[in-house]
């Protein structure tokens, strides 16, 4: 670890020679310009009482994209160092850091803070200091500011002008410090036990069985106790919480200290002594996997009734209807459809796990947070709609002969893949917890859960194929099939309009213009191809290839937009901010927090049917409830981490914070009475 630190800081100092950006009360190394993490020294009381004192804080505010480090920075980085200049009779205790976050970059685990944070310390005033005595506090602080690519050593000459007095604290300042204190690790009342066997660390922590623990992670304070980047396996057995991971190098044994995270910026400072610790039972992990797998299958099954799935399901209904009484054809298409759904879910899940392993903060539905993917879907859905409308006949597309007509196994497969790609972003009942669990399980178990989601989504069509009594209720093929195909083009065109609206929401008029240009080029090429087909001529495929290349160039020109700059308060709804949420909770204010996305129709249905109803707004306003919204339409690492801390990997998520209480997770299908009942 120390070798990494030396290399890291050396590179940081070289980078610091040429990096400069705006900040306050701090500067980069060698006077190289303002700092990327603004620092301010604050005191809870401007008049600390002799014999008591007060709490002081380094309020740190990183620029967007930058982060600071915990006292044990992990595989790379450095914590804060301070040099005090104090008047007679004043003492400063050790720095106290809030519970950190994990950031994996190129296989190196970093213990960081990516948003505003505060490092606290106790300031003591001797009893013999007379009231009214000036207490000038001076400190030279140094810290490291980094992005995922560069680091800059920074420093600040900070000061406080205090006067010995009665210790009075302004309510607003007390609320701010209470919010910061809530992020400090609390001392664990009982001693933990650890054992190192064959390079594996096992830790047993006394923890009540009914106490809540999410996103558990062990942050070692003792050098060499654990390898920072190693996976951590967590299990609960009665009133004990067990953590198992790879031991570090150079650990000297004896008493060990660590911070155990049990929630979003919530955790415990623990001391552990050597002792016997049993290996985590496999049955505990197996039970977790089976429970998550059941939730994934049931959640996938319920996705079939979600509004985000219906336009695509029409394609499969048409295909099954065309199979008629041919049992072998029906089963073949159902199996192909199921395979397409499962393969797509596995591909999305595998890609998500791979990107997260590389350090990206992503969640389920990450594919619809990219405007490039939205344009590709827009082109695909437009092609399907035009095919169903009879403009052209192309077997290679989802609506063509081989993909929707009788005995079209390949078509069933690609239809299933398309359903999974479009449907899975909507997190329905039972599915949210299952997907959140999958992200922290071993690779094989996680992929099994993603496959279970696909199985649940395809289950109705498997039942239709293998239960003749159900299949016989389907209408027989006839002339109506052609008319139905034309009718099904309508919801597909509406889906295309919805995707265009989503593109506008993500990238504004410029992104929408690029999307419309791509649709016009590709749609025109399809129309030309269809005309050549009807006249019996060849050569239309060349136009399609040329149009596809033009669309690729157009997609590559989609502008970048930082989603964090788009979050603004809207009317009575406050934009999600973790620091603001902590302040409201510290002030004992009731908060209704919900996470949504423009591509999640379940979210929008809940907003229209419940959240934005007049009676709900009136009830919340009367009770003084702050409504806070997290918009996840575009990828936002801060929202992703918060969702993960709640055991979720996608939206919607609805949380109710009653004054002085922990979050209550609400159902994923809301009604006005559900919300008004919270404040009744």
UniProtKB/TrEMBL annotation:
One Gene Ontology MF term: protein-disulfide reductase activity
Domain Thioredoxin, residue spans: 554-680
Stretches that traverse the bilayer: 289-313, 334-353, 373-397, 409-431, 443-467, 487-504, 510-529, 541-561
GO biological-process terms attached to the record: cell redox homeostasis; cytochrome complex assembly
Lineage: Bacteria, Pseudomonadati, Pseudomonadota, Alphaproteobacteria, Sphingomonadales
SUPFAM superfamilies attached to this UniProt entry: Thioredoxin-like (SSF52833)
InterPro entries in the record: Cyt_c_assmbl_TM_dom, DsbD_gamma, DsbDN, Thioredoxin-like_sf, Thioredoxin_domain
Membrane topology classification: Multi-pass membrane protein
Organism: Sphingobium yanoikuyae
GO cellular component, one term: plasma membrane
Protein known as: Thiol:disulfide interchange protein
Keywords: Cell membrane, Cytochrome c-type biogenesis, Membrane, Signal, Transmembrane, Transmembrane helix
Domain of life from the UniProt record: Bacteria
